[in-house]
Amino acid sequence: MIFFGFQSAMFYFFLTWLAAIHTYHGFSAVTAGLGVGIYQATGIAAMLLISRILQRTRDHRLVVGSRA
């Protein structure tokens, strides 16, 4: 349960506050938003790749352990 709460808190932080922190430190709003978009796209691509790898392997411990 603690892991899920932490994961939700990190998602909230990256989705809502990361762009604001970047603009505070001098980045333009467009650059900060682009950074958050790239972060989201990278996460989606990684999850799709990991799901494909898990479908093809019998022992999931190495893949899941490397992601945690």
Features:
68 residues; mainly alpha; 3 helices
Outline the structure in words.
- It is a single chain.
- Helix 1 runs antiparallel to helix 2.
- Helices cover 85% and strands 0% of the residues.
- The two termini are 15 Å apart.
- It is mainly alpha-helical and 68 residues long.
- The protein has a domain of 40 residues.
H-E order = HHH
Average pLDDT rating: 85
Helix content: over 70%
Question: Which blocks of ≥5 consecutive residues have pLDDT under 50?
Answer: none
Largest sheet properties: none
- Ends: how far apart? 15 Å
State which percent range the strand residues make up.
under 5%
Radius of gyration: 16 Å
What kind of oligomer do you see? single chain
State the shape: elongated
**Which structural class best describes the helix and strand composition?**
mainly alpha
Please provide the count of β strands: 0
The count of helical stretches stands at: 3
